[in-house]
Amino acid sequence: MRTTLTLDDDVAAQIRRLRESRKIGLKDLINEALRSGLKAMQESKRPKRRFQTKPVSLGRCFFDNLDNTAEVLAVVEGEDYK
């Protein structure tokens, strides 16, 4: 298959260096790089380890209702909490 590729400057520089060091043609290097890259992309990635928070007992709640924040702060910090 014939096709035209537009390469980014950094990719072109890497290809140029690899061709010089390996002394192989552009076609062979591109095919090798694509095979390697496609194989890596198709491999299933290792599943991420599931993060789990361990529960900790904080004891009993000293308030029947925590909906009134001002009341809770007044009890905990005293009436001068503002």
What can you tell me about this protein's structure?
- There is one protein chain.
- The protein is built from three helices and no strands.
- 0% of the residues are buried.
- The mean pLDDT is 88.
- It has a domain of 34 residues.
- With 82 residues, it is an all-alpha fold.
- The longest helix has 17 residues.
- The termini are far apart.
What oligomeric state do these chains adopt? single chain
How large is the radius of gyration?
31 Å
Q: What is the helix fraction of residues, given as a range?
A: 40-55%
- Unreliable stretches covering 5 or more consecutive residues: none
Structural class: mainly alpha
Distance between the termini: 75 Å
Shape: rod-shaped
Order of helices and strands: HHH
The main β sheet shows up as:
none
The pLDDT mean sits at 88
How much of the residues is beta strand, in percent?
A: under 5%
The overall strand count is 0
Annotate the secondary structure layout.
Blueprint: H1 9-22, H2 26-42, H3 69-77
Which features does this protein show?
82 residues; mainly alpha; 49% helix
Provide a concise account of the structure shown:
Helix content is 49%, strand content 0%. It contains three helices and no strands.
